[in-house]
Amino acid sequence: MAIPRILVVDDDRELSQMLAQFLARQGFMVCTAATGAEIESHILNQRIDLILLDVMLGEENGIELCRKLRAKETVPIIFVSALSADHQRMTGYEVGADDYITKPFNLDLLLARVRAVLRRGRRSSSLNYRRNTTVFSFNGWKFDGKRDEVYAPNGVQVALSQREKRLLKVLLANPHIALTRDEIIAAMDVTQEGHSISDTSGRALDVLVGRLRSKIEANPKTPELLRTERGVGYVFAVDVSHEDG
């Protein structure tokens, strides 16, 4: 399983660095940001598994940033805030936060909450948080995640198995991001009689990728959409647009 990458967002550089160093010692990969533009840059250029987001960011508002992120991103978000009133917490949850921690906080408690959200995210396919309410478009194709329907550029509906649909949803939610086999399987949350689709060699996922390619690629032997990323896993290599379905 890939090491989780956490983005710490706070305009207090000293606190931000302290949190980054603490989380790094716990085995996480950590990056920091202080503005909405920096958040977008990190998300665009690398996989982010969880965001720790301060509510008050100088001239920017963490609540509004979360609302904007939730309109297009699926990454779990934990608010870290000095605002502790119940209505302030509820506002955080209403805009899509997964948890809300008030300052000052115990670092061990923060760590426990981070791990809990990551575990919960893996069980609920965190790489594709709102996959069933989104319409994806790519290379003329359309995937209605709410109806689970896939349409080719010529408008003809293409039949995919449930596993193929789950795989495609994960990939469409993470275009241009190289995903490991473990990350894809965890995000798919696919089980068969209580067991993961993967075997120890990852062969089951490779077979599933082959089947999906046979249905969406012009030439499955030289795929242009779903490419193999040597040494990593797979990457969906074309732009994807999405909107609420």
Overview of this structure, please?
- This protein has 2 domains: 5-123, Rossmann fold (3-Layer(aba) Sandwich), CATH 3.40.50; 131-244, Arc Repressor Mutant, subunit A (Orthogonal Bundle), CATH 1.10.10.
- The model is unreliable at 123-133 and 190-201 (pLDDT under 50).
- The chain has helices spanning 13-25, 36-45, 62-70, 86-94, 107-123, 162-172, 181-188, 203-216, and strands at 5-9, 29-33, 50-54, 56-57, 60-61, 77-81, 99-102, 134-138, 141-144, 149-151, 157-158, 179-180, 191-192, 195-196, 226-229, 233-236, 241-244.
- Strands 2-1-3-6-7 form a 5-stranded parallel beta sheet, sandwiched between helices. A 5-stranded antiparallel beta sheet has the order 11-10-9-8-17, with no helix packed on it. A 3-stranded antiparallel beta sheet has the order 12-16-15.
- With 245 residues, it is an alpha/beta fold.
- Strand 13 and strand 14 (195-196) form a beta hairpin.
- Helix 6 (162-172) crosses helix 7 (181-188) and helix 6 (162-172) packs across helix 8.
- It is elongated and about 55 Å long.
Q: What keyword list fits this structure?
A:
245 residues, alpha/beta, Rossmann fold, Arc Repressor Mutant, subunit A, 2 domains, 5-stranded parallel sheet, 5-stranded antiparallel sheet, 8 helices, elongated
